[in-house]
Amino acid sequence: MENETERIINDVRKFVEGSFPYEIYDVTLKKLGKKKVLEVFIDSPKGVTVDDCEKVSRGLSDYLDELDIIPDAFTLEVSSPGIERILKRRVDYERHVGKLVKWTLQTEGTDGKIRNEVFDARLQEFTPETIKIQTDKELRELPLSCVKEAQAIFEFPEELSANKRRRKKNG
Question: Are 98 and 75 in a shared domain?
């Protein structure tokens, strides 16, 4: 049986995904002191703009006010998970194939002890069970279960980087 918070989160998820052309990346309902904050993170393959967040915020606010499913006063925050997001969902991994990611892995060493590794590497391939990542030294294939956290790293487009280097050299 779901508790009240889970019910609210599920209702919000169903409403947003059923009413707008966006996916839910995450929804949280937190208590900060005496205040409640409902955080809704939306996503789409094309990205999310401030206007998108505003549109969802207005529609969701009306929906929540009409149904009155959150007792007490609360603050609604709608935003994008950002460029340097944590990869949580299968689709996040799929969309980041070929891109640079900061990996935090928990792996078992040859001595049987669990060790943490943190490094940047390019995601080459993803399946629901495994990842292939290209480090500076090698191509590694690992079970997805050893990924403690994966966070996208923003890379400037190559032409912008080249222009910046040219300006610096000429300036």
Answer: no
Boundary residue ending a domain (79, 101, 124): 79
Q: Is residue 133 part of a domain?
A: yes
Pair 48, 22: CB distance under 8 Å: yes
Do 58 and 96 have their domain in common? no
In a domain, 54, yes or no: yes
Q: What is the pTM of this model?
A: 0.81
Residue closest to 127 by CA, chosen among 148, 141, 106, 107 = 141
Per-residue pLDDT of the chain (171 residues; tens, 9 = 90+): 468 889 999 999 999 999 999 999 999 999 888 889 999 999 999 999 999 999 999 999 999 999 888 878 899 999 999 999 999 999 999 999 999 999 999 988 788 888 999 999 999 999 999 999 999 999 999 999 999 999 999 998 876 555 555 555 655
3-state secondary structure of 7: helix
Nearest CA to 59 among 6, 9, 28, 20? Answer: 20
Residue 168's identity, in one-letter code, is K
**Is 85 within a domain?**
no
Q: How many domains does the chain have?
A: 2
